[in-house]
Amino acid sequence: MTATTTDDYLAAAAALDIRTDIFIDGRFVPALSGRRFPAVSPRDGSVLAEVAEGDAADIDAAVASARAAFEDGRWARRAPMDRRRTLLRLAALISDHREELALLESLDMGKPVVDALSVDLRVTIESFEYFAEAINKVYDEVAPTPHGTLATITREPAGVVGAVVPWNFPLMMASWKLAPALAAGNSVVLKPAEQSSLTALRVAELASEAGLPDGVLNVVPGFGPTAGAALGRHMDVDVIAFTGSGEVGRHFLRYAADSNMKQVSLECGGKSPHIVFADAPEVATVADAVASGIFYNQGEVCSAGSRLLVHRSRKDELLDALTEAAAQRPPGDPLDPSTQTGALVDARHLERVLAYVEIGTSEGARLVAGGQAARQETGGFYIEPTIFDGVSSSMRIAQEEIFGPVLAVLTFDDDAEAVRLANDTVFGLAAAVWSTNISTALSTARAIRAGTVWVNNYEGSDITVPVGGYGESGFGRDKSLHALDKYTQLKTTWIAF
Ligand code: NAD
Fold it and tell me: What is the pTM of this model?
């Protein structure tokens, strides 16, 4: 398939052969309960497939399979060079199927299909390639111990990893966990979000085709409070790697405390600020980055730049340019290659985002763009790109993660106030500093409590740099070699001679 028009994508969608069962021990099986739940397309509200609804019993079976695979060493004890080859084959297979997977992702969670292809699939492939290539190039350590002793510090796979991921970049978020966890020799049970199970199931099948031994990767679709909680509480899971909301992240900390003290890492939400100083670059450059920073992927991005902190002297020109940019990104059919704003993931989330528009208005902020549901005639879940001006930092729309295309604009008068506003949040995932003065840019970047700070750009990134948060944005890092820390144990072996 090489689709270029909406009709091409529709034809390809009609021909999709969707995997809907649980993937355990190298095979697709129905849920033990026999239950299924609908995968609803946010594009038009239609049911794409009925997916097997995994629960605690299926998680038990998946963990048992992962544990057996880990203990007999069919993957963990393979030479890193061999693991590299298998994961490179998987990356190549995902690449061969990237149009199919992008289409599935777009249909399942509402993002524009062209973005699924150019971002989600590209990054997913890069992620598998990067960790495959890394794993036979990282060395262990020898400690500087006294004469007559030798102490080695070696990395060992942690064991059985439970990966729990959200729906906003379903495959990409999964790949940030699967690639380092598998490269390091672990066995994995992946629980995709119930809104977006389909691509994970297909990739599990491709992993088998690539030669990943049975049981090393298991995928159990199902709901959070049942399947997700069972994984979090499981006594035989060694590590939980979670991406999602702070509320559910807290649950995983409790699950670990109440069970086997498994190691937990959390990639949670954000309320990331742009700080636009008086000497920021030209307005077109800043407006373009701010608009895509909040409207891209319908604002369903953990690091969305949802707060614009702008020096009073630059506010009017920037707001005009942003209002124009919002108007140029009307919600459209995710399968139309010209669409920049697709559908929100489901009806519940649309209601939640619309409720925040009401909250912003009732708090006294001024709605200057969007704010309305759109394309209701399609049966899908769309909202216009939305901007609030006159926001103050104590308002809920300045403090809470909306996870939709809603920008809150605040003004400041001096540098100290800018930093204070930027840090006036429980989150600390990302921020951007816009200034042509290197001292202002770097001193502000240092002063901001966030895992990533962009200077004169937004969302600049690749697989070589870590991503993760300060504060309630979580802890632990995805991507880069640092990601291996989450999936490995350090062992000291002290030898006397
Ligand atoms: P969510 O927290 O509702 O769900 C995430 C996952 O947790 C899903 O698989 C879900 O089924 C599971 N889950 C839900 N309730 C559970 C429970 N009680 N016990 C166990 N598991 C449970 O998040 P979401 O709505 O899917 O995604 C949006 C959130 O993800 C936002 O807060 C966003 O900021 C965050 N996110 C963070 C990053 C990052 O890298 N920091 C990246 C993407 C998304």
Answer: 0.97
Q: Are residues 56 and 107 in the same domain?
A: yes
Is residue 328 a contact partner of residue 336, using CB atoms and an 8 Å limit? no
- CA–centroid distance, 84 to ligand 1, in Å, is 30
351: how many CB neighbours lie within 10 A of its CB?
A: 12
41 shares its domain with 150: yes
Mutate to test the pocket of ligand 1, among 55, 219, 234, 248 (most ligand atoms within 8 A of CB): 248
Q: Could you report the per-residue pLDDT of 308-363, keeping only the tens digit for each?
A: 999 999 999 999 999 999 999 999 999 999 999 999 999 999 999 999 999 999 99
Task: Work out the number of other CB atoms within 10 angstroms of the CB of residue 137.
Answer: 9
Domain count, the chain: 2
β-pairing, 488-496 with 149-157? antiparallel
The per-residue pLDDT for range 192-232, each reduced to its tens digit, is: 999 999 999 999 999 999 999 999 999 999 999 999 999 99
CA of 193 to the centre of ligand 1 (A): 7
Catalytic residues: 267, 302
Rounded CA-CA distance 175/170 in Å is 9
Quick count: other Cβ atoms within 10 Å of Cβ 110? 30
